[in-house]
Write a structure and sequence with these properties.
Aldehyde dehydrogenase domain-containing protein, six-stranded mixed β-sheet, about 475 residues, 2 domains, Aldehyde Dehydrogenase, Chain A, domain 2
């Protein structure tokens, strides 16, 4: 499918309809067609963007918080106005079902609205003086030039969740989006410029050589903060590289989210929570339920009900309004899922639903429910990033907590129970930055998003998200008496 004039009006000057040097193709995973070609930037472009951001910093941070807020609100309005075009871009280049892509756009826009308001609440404080004639206070100031590296699975909201608080705080930003989804990123960037974000305050670097861009971001002393969402190995490498210049960092890395279902759970609610958590974006989210721990007394009923519910979900091209599950991002992702499922089945797991690559194409994998899974199987310790729900049986609450916490990751966790005492206990005991109790969809712009252990550092969203881009300065005034 060719891009429409509406899309080209947003991002056209970065594109080439035909292959040529210095451009890379953007592939529709649903059918393998080339949507367009995008300018492939280099380390030199990244350094130039940092120089622009550094030059623009004083003027941008020197504006009033309200002035920056007005621009962010206008950006939010433009995104809402262009929501359908943006959703179509997401579906075309990432495969996500159009009904979900619309939600991704509105979710992304919500961070602009939230941080437009939070910009006016970057409060310092007055501290009681220690002696006559002294005045003690703190103020909050922008960190400085920031770099952001964003993933393909939420190509709009992962940009706005980083950029909105940074701009609200008075920082300038250089973004490196995923090369899998450059069109959504370019469209959001163009709308930012139309909203009034000044030249140099925000730049975008689309590039296929991600390590070279990352090296520029980590090595340049003008960059005072790096925010990265992606894999744990890459995050660790960036963390180490930032040590030389002691940058501030936000890292949202891999997950291995447990989903606990106790005997006393509301079965229907648990199944719907599992659908929302596991199969959203065809299982390609960092907070997807990755391991389903189901208590013995409800195990068979839950497995049967989940399989029946999964059977109602249509797999297909995301542009079809009836589609619930689109393709995975590429054939490599499908092969990873296939290896994990085949390995589990070879060790005794049973695919009561799915378990195969779809006849629809190389990027489609059938929604799958596996029973008889054990913690010894690779699928129980590897982030699946696909539409597969592996069910592991447990007997006691302590068993469930022990198995759930037996991972180096700690991004999200979920539990279903109608026992309020148990709910309080497990929420405290689960080693995770975010916990959903009887809730499979926990993301919102109002709350802090982030993990513990090897799932990352820092928080995005909520009032905490603004603090990530602010430095606290303590000032002591004397001689005032």
């Amino acid at each position: 499918m060719l891009l429409s004039q509406a899309h080209l009006s947003l991002i056209g000057h970065h594109l080439s309809a035909e292959p040529k040097a210095g451009f890379f193709p953007v592939i529709n995973p649903a059918d393998g067609t080339v949507l367009t070609h995008v300018a492939d930037r280099t380390a030199e472009h990244a350094r130039a963007a940092i120089a622009l951001a550094d030059a623009a910093l004083a003027a941008w941070s020197g504006q009033t918080n309200k002035a920056r807020s007005i621009i962010l609100k206008r950006w939010h309005e433009l995104m809402v106005d262009h929501a359908e075009d943006l959703a179509l871009l997401v579906t075309l280049e990432q495969g996500r079902a159009i009904r979900e892509a619309r939600g991704e756009v509105i979710y992304g826009a919500s961070f602009l609205e939230w941080f437009a308001e939070e910009a006016k609440r970057a409060y310092g404080r007055t501290i009681p003086a220690t002696a006559p004639g002294k005045h003690l206070q703190t103020i909050k100031q922008a960190v400085g030039v920031c770099a952001a590296i964003t993933p393909w699975n939420f190509p709009i909201s992962m940009i706005t969740r980083k950029v909105a608080p940074a701009l609200a705080a008075g920082c300038t930003v250089v973004i490196k989006p995923s090369e899998e989804t450059p069109l959504s990123a370019l469209a959001v960037y163009e709308l930012a410029l139309k909203a009034g974000v000044p030249a140099g305050v925000l730049s975008i670097i689309n590039a296929t050589d991600a390590p070279s861009i990352g090296a520029v971001f980590t090595e340049d002393a003008r960059v005072r903060k790096l925010s990265f969402t992606g894999s744990t190995p890459v995050g660790k490498a960036l963390y180490a590289q930032c040590g030389a210049t002691v940058k501030r960092m936000s890292l949202e890395l891999g997950g291995n989210a447990p989903f606990l279902v106790f005997d006393d759970a509301d079965l229907d609610a648990a199944v719907e929570g599992a659908i929302g958590s596991k199969f959203r974006n065809s299982g390609q989210t960092c907070v997807c339920a990755n391991r389903f721990f189901v208590q013995a007394g409800i195990y068979d009923a839950f497995a049967s009900a989940l399989a029946a519910r999964v059977n109602t979900m249509k797999l297909g091209d995301g542009l079809d309004e009836a589609t619930h599950l689109g393709p995975l991002i590429n054939a490599k992702a499908v092969q990873k899922v296939r290896r994990l499922v085949d390995d589990a089945v070879s060790q005794g797991a049973i695919a009561v639903m799915g378990g195969t690559v779809s006849v629809l194409g190389d990027c489609f994998y059938e929604a799958t429910v596996l029973t008889g899974v054990t913690t010894a199987m690779a699928i129980a310790s590897t982030e699946i990033f696909g539409p597969v729900a592996p069910l592991i049986r447990f007997e006691t609450e302590d068993d469930a907590i022990r198995m759930a916490n037996d991972t180096p990751f700690g991004l999200a966790a979920y539990a279903y129970t109608r026992d309020i005492g148990r709910a309080m206990r497990i929420a405290a005991r689960l080693e995770s930055g975010m916990v959903g109790i009887n809730d499979g969809l926990i993301g919102t712009e109002l709350t802090p998003f982030g993990g513990i252990k090897e799932s990352g550092l820092g928080r995005e969203g909520g009032s905490e998200g603004l603090d990530e881009y602010l430095e606290i300065k303590y000032i002591s005034f004397a001689g005032l008496a």
